[in-house]
């Protein structure tokens, strides 16, 4: 058995794995927990391997053939040498593997390996331009110092404004009342939440309420979105300055925030041709990325 490839999209909340043959036929596809090595490499790697194994189970691939499968890994948080070394050091039942970030993989998938640009707005955020087989990256340095426009940053702002409202520092609104009710109207509950170092995806869970209350014209929810829209606009301008002519917006936040973005960006936006798993499969087939065996 030969010509098998698995593309992994390792996001901050979920990782997804797709198994294809040399003709691109999908043989299996699975979802697991976070594939971001920053949550802890052991946990992230186990999530990745479990998703790959499930895809193989669906494709009726016998374990003795796993070593012939090439992996393309597009992982959130894998833009630093430390995380890359951690990923490469992990044991795998599979064959060769090629590593880049989820942003790289998503950009390759969005334009089927051709030139283009992409902005991920998911649990985290990152921009990438692919031109003449070279990548340029904007942001993506991790929560909370980077990842502007992401679900995690929006959720963090939700808690920040709600706690301030609880203290009488900023106005209370139905939105802040809703968040504060979840924390039992207690600042101490916020501190306990913060002290246990919640993951970015846990902050990101609060972003849903921000957009729900923004639909009702809640002033604080709208303020949070507008602040993040300013950041997203700066990311888009940076991509355009790097030569982007077409930009695909992807990630769970992208659809929700799209209508709030300035109209001047509309001519640049396009629908992705494929997803990050498709891009990771391209990585595996074309041997793009940092190689590990």
UniProtKB/TrEMBL annotation:
GO MF term (any one): kinase activity
Q: Does the keyword NAD apply?
A: no
Q: Which residues form the ATPase BadF/BadG/BcrA/BcrD type domain?
A: 6-256
Q: Which domain of life is it from?
A: Bacteria
Q: Which InterPro entries does this UniProt record tie to the protein?
A: ATPase_BadF, ATPase_NBD, Euk-type_GlcNAc_Kinase
Q: Which SUPFAM superfamilies match?
A: Actin-like ATPase domain (SSF53067)
Keyword terms, alphabetized: Kinase, Transferase
Protein's UniProt name: N-acetylglucosamine kinase
Species for this entry: Marinomonas hwangdonensis
């Amino acid at each position: 058995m030969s010509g098998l490839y698995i593309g992994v999209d390792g996001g901050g909340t979920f990782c997804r794995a797709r198994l294809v043959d040399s003709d691109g036929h999908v043989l299996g596809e699975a979802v697991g927990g976070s594939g971001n090595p920053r949550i802890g490499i052991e946990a992230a790697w186990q999530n990745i391997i479990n998703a790959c194994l499930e895809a193989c189970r669906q494709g009726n691939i016998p374990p003795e053939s796993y070593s012939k499968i090439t992996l393309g890994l597009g992982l959130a948080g894998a833009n630093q040498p430390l995380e890359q070394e951690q990923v490469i050091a992990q044991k795998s039942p599979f064959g060769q593997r090629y590593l880049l970030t989820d942003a790289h993989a998503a950009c390759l998938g969005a334009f089927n390996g051709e030139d283009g640009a992409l902005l991920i707005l998911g649990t985290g955020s990152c921009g990438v331009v692919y031109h003449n087989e070279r990548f340029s990256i904007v942001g993506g340095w991790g929560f909370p110092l980077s990842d502007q426009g992401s679900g995690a940053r929006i959720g963090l702002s939700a808690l920040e404004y709600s706690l301030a409202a609880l203290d009488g520092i900023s106005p209370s609104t139905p939105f802040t009342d809703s968040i504060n009710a979840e924390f039992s109207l207690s600042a101490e509950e916020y501190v306990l939440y913060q002290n246990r170092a919640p993951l970015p995806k846990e902050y990101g869970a609060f972003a849903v309420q921000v957009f729900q209350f923004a639909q009702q014209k809640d002033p604080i929810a709208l303020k949070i979105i507008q602040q993040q829209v300013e950041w997203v606009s700066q990311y888009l301008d940076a991509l355009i300055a790097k030569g982007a002519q077409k930009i695909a917006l992807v990630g769970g936040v992208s659809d929700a925030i799209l209508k709030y973005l300035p109209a001047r960006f509309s001519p640049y936006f396009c629908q992705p041709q494929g997803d990050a798993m498709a891009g990771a499969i391209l990585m595996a087939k074309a041997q793009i990325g940092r190689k590990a065996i």
